[in-house]
Structure formats: C-alpha cells, structure tokens
C-alpha cells in the first residue's frame, strides 16, 4: 500500500489542464485512481462530465489508454476489453498484468448503465467499476437521478411552491451490487484519500469484479463555494449520510465510525440544493431524511457487528 | 484441396465459419432466429473446438458494447443477432463504425416489431443501412458461409465493421448442401488479425472515443465516408481471391441471364434463388428475363449497378421492406437514383413483398415479369409502387 508521500512522487497519469469546474471532486478522484492503478491500466469512461472534460479532441488528460463508447455501456465495454486481455493471455500474445477500470457518474451507473453494470458484475469479469456519484446528471445541467438525495433541488425535481424537491430516497446501489455476491464492494469519499486509495488497490488486487461507489461533491450542482468540496465530503461521512464501508467476500465492514454522529441538518445547511428545506414548512422533510439516515446507519452497524 | 460436403442450415453454416475463424472474442446475446448461431458457438467453446473468449452479455446493447471494447483492445471479434437485437445495438453500430473497428455480425433478417413477428423481412438491416457498416446479403447457406469468411477479411482490410445476413427461417433454418473449406485454409485466407489500434499496448497509450466537436468531427466523418468508398475495391479483391483459391468468385452483385435481358428483377437474399427458377422457366418460353441479385448493399456500388442495368428496358425492384416514406422501399430509391444519370433511363417499378415472412411464390414473381412486359408494350407504368401478396 503506497503512502500519500509515495503517491505524490509518482507521475500523474490523469494530467492537469482538463476542463473540470473548479472544486470538482470527480477529477481529484480520477487522478488518485490513476496514480494507484498505474500505467498498466486501461480506463473506460461513460459519457458524462469526466469524459467531456478530459477528452476533447485533439486533447486528452489520459496518459494511460482510455476508451469512451457511450453513456450506458461503460461496464460492458470494459468487460470486452477484459475478454480480449484474457484471450490474448491464453494465446500467449500478452504476458503483463493489465487492469481494466470502467467508470461512470451516477447517471451512467445507477440509472442508464445499471443493466450493463449488473451484467458485467454477474459475469465476473476481472475488472473494477468505479462510480463517481455526484448525485444528479451534472453534465447536462443538474437533472435528478436515482442517486439524488430526498428533498434535493435539481432542474427536474425543482423546489417548487407545491413540490419541495425530489420526493424519493436514493437507490442503494452499493448494496444492490453487493447483492451480486462479487468479491469486493466499497463506498468511499474523496476527503479520505488513504481509505479510498487502499480500496482501489484492494479492488485491483483481488481476482474478479469489484465495485467502488465514491461520493463526488459538485459545487455547481450542490450549490456551495468550490473550495469546500473536501469539507463537504467529510461532512457526508460524519453525518453518516454517506457511510464509508466495504463488503469483502460478503462481509460488511465499516471503515469510518464517527465518535458522535453529526446531525444531518449540518450537511443540509452546507449546500444550496437543500436551501428550501430550511423553512419551517419543510421541517418534516429534514426529519424524515434524518430518520432514513439513522435507519440505514443502524442497519449497517448491525450487519458489520454480525459480520454479514 | 478437399472440401468437406455437409448438410447445414444457414445458422449452422455461419456458426461453422465462426468456428474456423476462431475469433479472440465473441460477445453475444441470443435472439430468434439467430439463437442457434450463439448456441452452436457456445458448444464449440464448451467442447474446446475454439479457444475464443465467449462473453454472454445480458443484452444485445451490451453484447455489441463488449465487442467494441474487445476490438479496441486489439482482438478479432464477432457476434450474431437479428431484428430487435440489431435495433437494440443501433446506437453502438455507429460508434463501432466511427471508431473503425472491424467487427463482424452474423445477422438473420427478421422483421422489426411492431407488431411483433419472428419471420423474415429486411426491415432490421435496412434500418441500419446508414450506420457505416458494410452489408452483405446471402442467398443461401453456402453464401452465408462464404460471406462470413470474406467479411472478416474485408472488415480488417477496410477497418470497417461488416454485417453478413441471411433470411430468417427460409435460410437460417433450412438444411442445404454446404461445401466447407479445411480449417487451415480458412485461417490462411483470413490471415493474421489486423487491428486498427491496441488499447492493451499500455506503453503507447491512446485516447479513443473522445469528445469531437465542431472543429474536428466533420473531418473524422469524412474519413469514414472515404473508408466506405475504399472498401469497394477491397470487397472485389477479396471476392476474387476467394474464387481463385476456392472456386467461387464473389462480387457486388450476381447477374443471372442479364446479358440480353429486356426485363429484370432486382432482389436480395433468398428470393433471388426463387427468381432464378422463374427466370429459367420464362426463358424456355422465350421471354428475355433476367435477375440482378444484390450481394453488397453497403458500400452501394452505384457506378457498377448503373453500368449493369443500363441496357434493361423495364426493371422491378423487389424489396422485403418498406421504408415508410410513402414512396417505396430503400433499394428502389437507390437503384432509381443511380440510373438517373443513365442515358437510356430504364423504367423502374417497385414491388414490396414478404413482410413478416409472408411467402413469395414463383407464380407471383412470374406475374411481376409479365407486368414488366406490359409496361414495355404500353409504354407507361400503372403503379410505381406495388404491394405483392398482401390482402388490400
């Protein structure tokens, strides 16, 4: 396991000069993943923010092989690369170990690419799928996804005079993928680089499919000043809104337990997308959201305790 | 060289060609009536007759997406599908062609829903005709086999993907005599896999499929258009080489009794076989009729077609699809368009037939030839667009 000091001495494989917004967490995430994965890695990116900001022809931020196919098929595309790798290895045409990492935002992963991801995981390709979850379709201008939090304002779940933001709780994709009984599933957040890079390393070491769902704060969509991305990421973990945990061979393990769980209201207050929830008439929404966070966190604690 | 004589269906013939090609990767999703191709190939894998990596995807969209990944990683890649499956692949068809990946699809022509139907027409491949894939239609099992082997070579020379198709059930499920080449001869013919790029060459990293905006997109598309043009001599060259080595030469089309014909039917696929029988019988009666069978529809060999048809008086384009344009079918449009430049300007009519697998009978084809004769006598066309064998 490389330390931050060691990693910082490595040459960046996701180069600067890309066109991501100031404060974008997803670009930090990709840079870290590329550093950990190293040069013998092929990346596949779904259509979305990160594909757009990193590949505008004739420029590229990728100093490793990179392929973009379409929106909903990053997992299937990666599975094809892995199949050729296995085939050529079997036929003695390739000897070195090469990693395959497919990634997508929550749009390309939770929603339109869900089937493709499920298929690739079930087929047990030796690959890592990474979801940078910024909780809405940010690339097209902040539309709701099935990862968007309860009550959040997006352009298709606007905080209106009658309906106050998104009316549904997000899909628990991490658990849905864990239900595929693959060897490794994890949730991470970019403020905790040590935890995250360790998880990437683990995912690439194990044989078979791995899935990492990493929260990716988005200043534009979540409406906060760009310099606060890492703080907001930390707050997501401290409020248990976004638990940091892993499921290794079916066993849940919590990687970060706050000494004292911070109230969800702190997280809600930190972002403009929840602004409308601070009014008296929407107080019940905050309460409901807190109740859901408690329920999920307690469930996770129980699973970790029971080692299931 | 000794050919092996077998009895095989269209599906079995294509699967046999796939076995002999022994691709690096096959990623597929079974669909009626192409299911057998995937099934038979799965048995080849299970029995160790090929060492292909088989990816049994959860949909056709993922199957072709995996093919794109596999081919971009430097693999020789094939798949098989039909109808709704090809429609579900539609988005990725354009991407595979745009990335210039030489993937081959063994396709079975089946109607597109709705209403749902599992039988033959050409609505599926015709709906994909603008996707940048080479399209080769087969009359029978033998052609399906020969075309599959040639398509692999053509695709890798042109760096364009190719679809080889057969008519659902009529060919896909009919047992016919098949001459199979020895395995090593097929391998020799297709040669070492030629790859446009190699994502697994991690020492020389490339970015593929990046965002291409107003400043470069058009140039890249222009290159793709040129590649389709350049595929024409490649198809001829490969068809000729196939003939020299194995006995049957293939071109863009087949001319059957066309040399002195006054009246011609243009058809694709199995109907060409039925039409040949009708041509034979009408010739005996002294009618100067011929058949023009289109084998390669993409790239469209317009100059060659124009030259081949200029001397015909009246032509009927039989199409197993209607383009829903309210003005006839795709093949009709393109044939008519390429004869616009001709000085003789043959009269051309359109007969749409056989949608959803409705049989076409020799009697009906005979009727078409007779109508062509009447048109020549009267000097005018009664109906430009006709529907054959439908209750009106």
How would you characterize this protein structure?
Chain A is built from twelve helices and eight strands. Chain A is an alpha/beta fold. In chain A, strand 5, helix 8 and strand 6 form a beta-alpha-beta unit. In chain A, helix 2 packs across helix 8 and helix 4 packs parallel to helix 6. Chain A starts with a helix and ends with a helix. Chain B has two domains: 243 residues, 3-Layer(aba) Sandwich (Rossmann fold), CATH 3.40.50; 136 residues, Rossmann fold (3-Layer(aba) Sandwich). Helices cover 41% and strands 20% of the residues of chain B. In chain B, strand 14, helix 11 and strand 15 form a beta-alpha-beta unit. The radius of gyration of chain B is 21 Å and the shape is globular. At the A-B interface, strand 1, helix 3, strand 2, helix 4 and helix 6 of A face strand 3, helix 3, helix 4 and strand 9 of B.
Throw out a few tags for this protein.
heterodimer; A: 308 residues; alpha/beta; Rossmann fold; globular; B: 392 residues; 2 domains; seven-stranded mixed β-sheet; six-stranded mixed β-sheet; 16 strands
